[in-house]
Design brief:
Layout (H helix, E strand, L loop, with lengths): L1 E5 L3 H13 L3 E5 L2 H10 L4 E5 L7 H11 L4 E5 L4 H9 L4 E4 L4 H19 L4 E4 L2 E4 L4 E4 L2 E3 L3 H12 L7 H7 L8 H19 L6 E4 L3 E4 L5
Parallel strand pairs: 1-2, 1-3, 3-4, 4-5
Antiparallel strand pairs: 6-7, 7-8, 8-9, 10-11
Length: 227
């Protein structure tokens, strides 16, 4: 799971990065709001930690624009604790506040709590979004940049499996079980054939992007952000 830390104090950003990576998260650090927003428009993090005061903008504006792109938890770092400041933050979508100075361990604990809530909330949702890729589970349709990608039923099932767990490696055995196709005697070739066809369709919609990658001796995974 990927965390974005937007903090202009480099040492503080690196400290948070160290603690969050130790907790098992991938972390991207940004020291200006413009750099953060440019990255968010390409791919959204699973959670963002925003400093309220930045050299080129403020955390309110970044939070507002990020929430327009994706419904991800936002934790605001601030020395301001007034009711007016908190209310303004909540109005633009801030989910939580951490007041400076703070303990990095407290930030990690809050990140874990919000990530758990976010995961539980999305389990009942019929739509998955990963950057330009959108998957509608209720009608088994996939879109890239709002253009439908024609997938067979089993191709869709595989893509949904990958997209539900980005960057996780799945063996052929796991994928064949997911397809309820355990009785097939040649499941290696069956899975490889589905993956080949799915790749061709995704590559046509996302030229140059390697969405589904092979992991030698292990299986396949969906790489996000798309490379």
């Amino acid at each position: 799971m990927r965390i974005a830390v937007v903090e202009d104090e480099v040492k503080l950003a690196e400290l948070l990065k160290k603690y969050l990576e130790h907790a098992g998260y991938d972390v991207d650090c940004f020291h200006t709001g413009s750099d953060a927003l440019a990255s968010f428009r390409k791919s959204q993090p699973h959670l963002a930690i925003l400093d309220l005061m930045l050299p080129d903008t403020d955390g309110y504006e970044i939070c507002k624009q990020l929430k327009q792109l994706a419904d991800v938890p936002v934790i605001m770092l601030t020395a301001k604790v007034s009711e007016e400041d908190r209310l303004r933050g909540f109005e633009v979508g801030t989910d939580d506040y951490v007041c400076k100075p703070f303990s990095p361990k407290e930030v990690v604990a809050r990140v874990k709590s919000w990530m758990k809530r976010s995961y539980q909330r999305t389990q009942g949702v019929d739509i998955l979004s990963l950057g330009p890729l959108m998957i509608k589970n209720n009608n088994r349709e996939a879109y890239v940049n709002d253009i439908a990608v024609g997938l067979t039923t089993k191709e869709f099932m595989l893509l949904h499996c990958f997209a539900s767990h980005p960057n996780q490696v799945f063996s052929r055995e796991q994928l064949i079980v997911h397809l309820n196709d355990e009785d097939n005697d040649s499941f290696d070739r069956v899975i490889d054939s589905h993956i080949k066809n799915m790749r061709k369709k995704l590559n046509a919609a996302l030229p140059g992007a390697k969405v589904i990658q092979s992991v030698y001796g292990a299986g396949y995974k969906l790489v996000f952000p798309f490379q």
